[in-house]
């Protein structure tokens, strides 16, 4: 089975991960890292960096992703109805420049820069947006004049210390759809990604203040049916976003990263054997399973931020439950890299073996296609040597992004003019792109070895470039091997291999 790589990872039991043979590693598996911008969690590390410093930090993050043999990033570019990219619809983010509405100086487009750097490294990029949060803290944020809280205050609701869009207002859905459509139309991206924040997490003793929109837009929902009305509001925006994305670029995926529990079994016979205090359906009004059944979304990344064996929410139980309720969507598990801590109150997280065990478990469940990790800065921190354990086990070899069965495949032509040239002991591989060539995969084989591209251990690089320099090193002479190159299409279909000819 082919799997995808993301800043998430999945595998079998701990003892198995280090003993797997090359052919047992999945060639396709999602492995992705989340790059969070809100509150400067990952990037930029502060809102006071220069343009050059911001670029250097992003390059370092992407190099870390590549060093972990991951194949994608999930980049948060709209945390608070703002933009970490050039937008005519919403203001520049305060998390980028320290002042909402202020562009980078010297000017650049951080999103386009990140896309370009991802492509150099053969990384997919998913754009992470928050649909409804508008102001992070009403006591601290000074909203720009063109921020929606100022241009459309009638769309706003204050709940706790935050401002949110009112999901019950049709114009709100249209605005979010315009923002998403603008991104899909202007940027070379692989997916649009929403996390778990739909209706906000509940504040004890305080009701979400949407009575006015319920009175005005309740439709066929009666006074006792407000919760179903809220769920319908979220259903409407998910369907509208799906239709908007696919009408512009059918190859762009639409993914959701929900809270890890859809519903507890005590509330629904179709729910999981958990006792979580919060659920998507009952508290966030997000009926994820409906979206999957209706084919409104292409992948699901449940945030399983618990350890194997946790009494109220067991990772093992939930991983299996989500795989059994995929309804044709690719399932990538959200892994809690940030919880690895020698001082954790939970014994399980005092060792990075917990992540390795979870990946081993994922790999034993047929419906799971990969992992995404929160968050990117922990790749550099490498808590409790998790990097070494990943690279000696489940991430020993590179992996290609999984094909999504819900996306009509685009078939790539083979690259042409594949040439190998010697430069002393070094060699240079070059080739030319053809129709539907998005990225390229270079494989290396011993001289008499069969050129099989189903072997992940033979992948040496994935890139959008059309040239690769291979340096000689102690014990390695690149001229003593043979190489082939394949092309990947925008839907991750792979061409037949092309052998390199000597110049």
Question: What are the defining features of this structure?
Answer:
eight-stranded parallel beta barrel; 26% helix; alpha/beta; 503 residues; 19% strand; 2 domains; TIM Barrel; four-stranded mixed beta sheet; Immunoglobulin-like; disordered N terminus
Describe the structure.
The protein is 26% helix and 19% strand. With 503 residues, it is an alpha/beta fold. The protein folds into 2 domains: 14-391, TIM Barrel (Alpha-Beta Barrel), CATH 3.20.20.80; 416-502, Immunoglobulin-like (Sandwich). Helix 2 packs parallel to helix 4 (110-120) and helix 6 runs parallel beside helix 8 (226-248). The longest helix is centred in the middle third of the chain and has 23 residues, at 226-248. The two termini are 37 Å apart. Mean pLDDT is 94; it is low at 1-20.
Q: How are the secondary structure elements laid out?
A:
Layout: H1 14-17, E1 30-35, H2 51-67, E2 72-78, H3 94-97, H4 110-120, E3 124-129, E4 133-135, H5 148-151, E5 156-159, E6 162-165, H6 170-186, E7 191-194, H7 211-217, H8 226-248, E8 253-256, H9 280-284, H10 288-293, E9 299-300, H11 315-324, E10 330-335, H12 353-364, E11 368-373, H13 377-381, H14 386-391, E12 416-423, E13 426-432, E14 439-446, E15 459-463, E16 467-470, E17 481-488, E18 498-499, E19 501-502
Parallel strand pairs: 1-2, 1-11, 2-3, 3-7, 7-8, 8-9, 9-10, 10-11, 12-19
Antiparallel strand pairs: 4-6, 5-6, 12-13, 13-16, 14-15, 14-17, 17-18
Helix pairs in contact: 2-4, 6-8
